Amino acid sequence: MGHNAKDFAKLVRNCSNQQSERECVATESLVIRTDFKSPDISDSALAENLEKLIFINLLGYPTQSSQMNIVQMMAAAREHKAKRCAYLCYGLLVEDTDVMMMATNSIRKDLKSAALHTVDTALQFMGSAGHPDLLEDLYPDVLALLTDRRKYIVKKAAQAAVRIVRLLPESSDKFIKPCLTLLKDRALVLAGLQLAVAIMRYGGPDMAAYCARELLPAVGALATLVKTMAQGYKTTAVQKTAPDVFIICAAVEFFGLLLAYVPSDDARRCISELLLHMPLALTAHAAILLEASRMVLETCKDETLQPLALNVLFRFLSHKDTNLRYAALTSMPAALSLNPTVVRRHTSAIVSTLDDASPVIRRRGLHVLLQVTDGETAKTTIRLLTEYLERCDKDLVPAVVSGLDDISQRYAPTPRWDLDTMLDVMTRTPLPKDTGLLPVTARLIKLIRGHEDLQGYATMRLHGRLTASGPLALHLLAISVVGAYCSTVVSDNVSPESVVAGIVKAMRMSSGTASGPVKRVGLYSLAHVARQYPDTRSDIVEFVKSYRTNLDLEIQQRAIEVVGLLGLEPHEISSVLCGDDLGAVPEDRAIDDDLMDLLGGVANDASATQTPATPATPAEMSNDLMALLSGANAASPAPAMAEDAEEDLLADLLPSKLAQAKPQPAAPESARPAPLSTAPMMPADVFSQPVKPKERVSAGQVVIELEPKSSEGGVFTMDALISCPVALDHVMLQAAAPRHMTVKLSPPSSREVGPGLPIAQQIVLTQGEGTGPLALRFRVEYVQGEAKEVHVCDANLAKMFR
Hints:
Blueprint lengths: L4 H9 L4 H20 L5 H16 L8 H10 L3 H14 L3 H5 L2 H8 L4 H14 L2 H14 L5 H17 L8 H8 L5 H14 L2 H11 L3 H14 L12 H15 L5 H13 L5 H18 L5 H12 L4 H17 L1 H6 L1 H6 L6 H14 L5 H11 L8 H15 L3 H14 L9 H13 L1 H12 L8 H13 L11 H14 L5 H18 L4 H9 L7 H14 L3 H9 L39 H12 L3 E3 L8 H4 L47 E5 L2 E11 L2 E9 L4 E10 L3 E6 L4 E3 L5 E9 L7 E10 L2 E10 L6
Antiparallel strand pairs: 1-5, 2-3, 3-4, 4-8, 5-7, 5-9, 6-8, 9-10
Helix pairs in contact: 1-2, 2-3, 3-5, 4-5, 5-8, 7-8, 7-9, 8-10, 9-10, 10-12, 11-12, 12-13, 12-15, 14-15, 14-16, 15-16, 15-17, 17-18, 17-19, 18-19, 19-22, 22-24, 23-24, 24-25, 26-27, 26-28, 27-28, 28-29, 28-30, 29-30, 30-32, 31-32, 32-34
């Protein structure tokens, strides 16, 4: 004889270890199976065993062996408790569809039972957990119960019918006539409304239109009922009683769906009276008004009701209830798409939410304000948000700056106005080390590069910001622009040496997480100054040499590269910094090189000691830079401690234009890049096409297996598994894509690879403008023994798309 359910639960909880718990569960499971086989098991014992079976399943132990017994017990149970436990076990534990369908006759028998609790239990199960195959066989029985004389059973049958309509939309037409009958009965009107809404929402447009026409005769009486209920429960000083909010809200939803397909004066008049005369004294009243306004704006879109719905939303914005204010803000996008003029007329109400006590309201209000801004209100919005920057929450600063950048870019009358606006925004940003401004820095560099008339003006404005306090992104912008266009500020009052001194001071003043990016940008900026003014080269070289032993490996590498570059002839420096292997480009394209250092993210912590990199000769350095990046957008591995948020924010600005400064000896055949022109051309919508499972390429001893993960919205993500049959040290993988794509590769891969020790990386390709080869080029560098090897291979991505 086993324990009852409560004693069994206590016994399991008192087990001292997992082994004793398993033994306890195994013993009780044997007792349960033995009881199930007994032909004269009582209903009380059956209920206890079913409860214990549910508890065993909740503990995580398998119960599949009892599925057939559960189906048998559903038919054997006679008392209400046993029947209820059997249905609960059936819904929770029976997973096999074939076994589930074996209970069809048992459920049909319960639906036709004379006992109220038996029919109720079966209908509740069908309304909450019924399987589509099971419902397809049993919906005629549910349809018959919709006309039962017992109203309680009819309500439960309507609940089951709603689930049938949701899972079997093709059966919706069978329930329209019973639904009309329910709508005419005051006691069953809520069940009828729920069924009607389900038919119109899930049955499809044609079925919804047919249902609206068939149910139109019931609209008049239903509208009268709703108005009577709303008027009869008006709030007074003596009595505060909420209206039957469920019936009114369901009726409003039904009216909104109906008006989308057929005209009805009764339905329109009912909704308009609710929007006009319903008070805001109780939460129930607010729920009715919110439902009515949403139905008008999102479903029926009736032009005569739209102004009334918008007035309700703006009443909510000034209400003391936070939930109502948030609900009004979430409904604003739908209102903006229907009547933007009226919404923009109430911009002041939206602006007031920026100073709300709730952070959720503040963030949502900012989102809505950015949505309602157009060309006429852009300047006002920029002024308000720029002032708001000084008092907003720290976590809201990136969102405000991003919104200002978007508005300025879209509605700026001139490029100079755009530049001045964003420089003012960056100056007012209260967070000195805010990295959320890095995308703004990237866009402004593009803007300055593309407008020659802005280069001198921007350099003059930013020259004074080199050593001033401000956010990290503004310092990076100033260092980049001043270094690239320093010739525009050099005059009798400003010497090249003072420009170098300003950049050096900015690099030395940086500290903390900002130190790494500032130093890496500053090194390349100094290289640009030395290119334009050779007399400053010796001083710059002496300063840069001090960074060749920096604890940050990225700074080491940049310093070595800059020292190597400055050892070349002036025309060779220009060819490396400004050249392009596809032909001559304007010299201002050189500013892109200032952002290469940001691809690795924030510098590693100074406490993490690293081995200094070996200095490279100028020829080796130039050749290494071009081995992968020639004519492509490249992705370099990030340092191991870099933060994802700063890893590749500006990678799309790197056009890889470093060219070989001198003729180099022929590279080994395995390391020589082959032309990608033979790869298939990329269609415009290639990243929206289905992908095949895997693609594999080899580079020397290394095997790279590409497995696609997702492909949508112009972004293609895949995993790269790097493996090798032998042990290799310091494996470094880099990837390059043609100019019409950008590639991002993470995390770093500079570590040991060997049998059973692969490296997993993620590759993200973003489709840009134009077309070209659908291919990737991999450069693999590793050490085998004491020999360093470099191999290059191409992956034809066209094979991965069907």
